Amino acid sequence: QKEVEQDPGPLSVPEGAIVSLNCTYSNSAFQYFMWYRQYSRKGPELLMYTYSSGNKEDGRFTAQVDKSSKYISLFIRDSQPSDSATYLCAMRLNSGGGADGLTFGKGTHLIIQP
Amino acid sequence: GAVVSQHPSRVICKSGTSVKIECRSLDFQATTMFWYRQFPKKSLMLMATSNEGSKATYEQGVEKDKFLINHASLTLSTLTVTSAHPEDSSFYICSAAWTSGQYFGPGTRLTVL
To answer: Which chain A residues contact residue B29 at CB under 8 A?
Structure first.
């Protein structure tokens, strides 16, 4: 069993729809959770960074963490064609100063249809 | 804030040569930087953790003599792929740790002929 599971898609939705992306993980030692957006042949761009269970909202994006279920989600409201990209979940252990590398999911390829 | 740059963005080299990739944090100091590799349609895999002023820590299966890492200052880490072979062709991405997460560079696409 891989440490982080993420459906690679592709996930295709119409413009304006609410998008739900999620990851599950097996290592309960993961404490920090991130969502990145990656366009083709580019480096990942940090979208959301969370620590505790619960919801965190930033503009059209909402990140949700459920540590008891080892399940994280990213919701995108009012999706736009420019949101079309690969979305990667990532997580790391809880060591001081952020000195741990990230463990990534495979990434979900999202397509927003105009 | 939290901008990370990489140079070069793309490099093509002959088999057997060495290639150096630079990673810089432009507007913050990064005690710790990370090097990842990404194959087509695959996720990012952590190769090594680069610590300023000390030896890098390599992930299992990554050859430290092949992938030389130097973190000489708080804003610069370099990855040198020594004696490159076609199987080393990949997308190499660095990141730097900051208070609110890890920030990635734009990546370097290495093609070994």
So the answer is: none
Give the DSSP letter string of A12-28: EEETTPPEEEEEEES-T
CB-based contact B48:B62 (threshold 8 Å): yes
Express each pLDDT in A27-63 by its tens digit.
998 989 999 999 988 999 999 999 888 999 999 999 9
For residue A31, the SS3 value is coil
Q: Does A97 touch chain B (CB under 8 A)?
A: yes
What are the pLDDT digits (tens) for B57-103? 999 999 999 999 998 888 999 999 999 999 999 999 999 987 767 89
B49 closest CB neighbour out of A44, A88, A101:
A101
